[in-house]
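User: I'm putting together a teaching handout on how multi-component assemblies are represented. Below are the sequence lines for each component of a complex, exactly as they appear in our records. Could you produce the 3D structure of the whole assembly as structure tokens, so the students can see both representations side by side? Please keep the chain order the same as the input.
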Amino acid sequence: MDNVLNIIKDFTQTYHQKLISLARAAENSLNVLNISDEVKNLKEEGIICDLNEGNAPYRPRYIVVDFEKFFKNGSDFLRLNPPNDIWEATNNLLILYKHIPSITSFPVYIGNIDYLLEPFIEDEKEAYKAIKLFLEHIDRTITDSFCHANIGPKRTKAGEIILKITRELQNSVPNITLKYSDETDDDFAIEAVLTSLDTAKPSFANHDMFIKDLGENYAIASCYNGLPVGGGSYTLVRLNLAYLAKKAKDEFDFLDNILPYAVDVMANYMDERIRFLVEESNFFQSSFLVKEGLIDKDRFTAMFGIFGLAECVNYFINSNNAFERFGHGKYANELGIKIIEKLDEEVKKHKNNFCKFSNGNFLLHAQVGIDTDKGISPGCRIPIGEEPELPQHLLQSAPFHKYFPSGIGDVFSFDVTAKNNPEFILDIIKGSFASGLRYISFYGNDSDVIRITGYLVKKSDIEKLEKGEQVYNDAVVLGLGSVKNQRILERKVRKI
Amino acid sequence: MKAPVNKIIPFSSVDGPGNRFSLFFQGCNFNCLYCHNPETINLCNNCGICLEVCPKGALNIIDGKVLWKEALCVKCDLCIKECPNLSSPKVKYMSVKEILNEVYKYKLFLSGVTVSGGECMLYAEFLKELFKEIKNLNLTCFIDSNGYILFEEFNDLLNLTDAVMLDVKSYDEKEHIMLTGKSNKNVLRNLIYLGSIGKLYEVRTVVVPDVLDNVNNIYSISKMIANIDDKIRYKLIKFRPLGVRKEFSRIKSPTDDFMTKLKEIAVNNGCKNVIIT
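Assistant: Of course. Below is the structure of the complete assembly, with chains in the same order as your input.
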């Protein structure tokens, strides 16, 4: 019980942060999952990691509510009627947000907010005020950076107002993604680029590619996770390819034996987590979100995460020559693709009946890492400090993206002079998507709001926390860890 | 047909609109005191002095010509620093096809191609052949020039060119000769001609405190621009002592206040699109 007392006495946690920590401690005092020795061993070795999802899953990790349906029907449970104006619309959303569970206890998806609010924009001045209060309310009450809003693909008045206010507020929450396609007109995209250089959001999602993989009705939630609307993901567990590599005699042993074994063990562990959540926790029997059709079990999947591909490949390459390592060398890059191809093949062999949305399969996810990862790169990313020039970087990265429908992305830091030529960045986005990139994020090197790995944190908040002061956003502590362990602030600044 | 290429930058944000593939040709008909890449001025005379400083043995003389082995090069640039001839042993003679192969790799990411230098108009015939092919890729073609060669004599090339970015380094002829070694008569003639046919994207002037009469330059050049088309972009560039010759490395950059003052002069003269970099 030391842990519980430590939480209570922690000076840097706010009251609400303590409550969540205490709930987590209570959950973790249980031992109800049927976990094999093989899973236990790989977990202890740091090869399988469930990202502190808890010992007794009682809510899906990521819930992606169908907000359009909520607007159409209102909610009996919450005694809300369908909204009639911008004030009712934003108010209804803010109420529902407080009732959406997730791994963080905050909603990880808050809707395609421009499309949701567009029908209610009559007087622009009034809409501006309503949306500004709405976004401010979100930042101060959904105090977690994994909260994600979507906009686009088409330009709307609401979308323009949201971008303008986003630049003014300089908040870290919500994270925002612009679903980008041919339907997005250039002027709106340029506004989004300028907003991103100012305050690290929105990111850009390859809309056509996501539709092809997940259908029209998808959303980007949490960091950059592509998931079905009206559903979500039961769980996300990740495989540490960097550590797993060390168990192999050579790359052939890795591909033929070690990787298939680890995929099998991890998939079984995910099965068990899903089984408890669906069959024992009663979430899908009791939640009003299910009863009112805002989510549906058949629209859920599960995310099979990996990270540390770069270090895995470099372990087999065993070379200090920068031109031979992952991200640079032809052989290394091809080995990276071979490993992901094999991973895809093995993960697809496994079936779970609860993942109806994805035909019984788990969806691959290039996990962005957690604060305590030291010297291991996110997903398939090239390590910070070894980044090639931008053109080579994008062309190297693109071939990996098609394997990861539930999320993969690259982050670039641009010198502020890019603001003089935002078309330059839009060209890069267009080229990236045409080359098969799924998701791209960037920020200006003078921003206060910065992208850590997938989520946003204010640099000024990191400084406060480091001095031992409380901050209201619970992700700042993760950002601080990542700055220390993953050299986030040393990302190559693109000055071209 | 081949032309000497000093450098290729596949993604550039500062050589025209959008993302551009920038191609820097070797050789220049000016010799500016403040040149930021003086190694692009002359063609290599194969003296071989650079061989002595290369730490990796990437340079050899074969049949009297300096040859650069790119695979061995570590880009330390000691060869360039040592060159007494304002040149570089790393220049590649490239054909239109070889350049196209490079452009093709990055085509999806580009708005277009910008040719620069050195002075790219020394290779106007080559540019014509190159632009014909670039146009087939649906990319725009921009020329970055010092304006010494008269564009009116190359209308075939101009027909293939979307726009020109022109350096006007000084309004005063004597000062221009002092700075570049050549008169500015053609430069100003080009400014008027290119402006009149709607092919002038941008005019640039580098601001150098104490060396140039900056106020007079910006005043007179901006007046000319505004008379032609007030929407033409006028870019005022701060001199920066990076990459310049030793004699110029002690000259200071202009202050932000001074740059803002110059911008105001240009705006007051009617220029609608003035930027400072």
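A couple of points students might notice: The first helix of chain A runs from residue 2 to 9. The radius of gyration of chain A is 22 Å.
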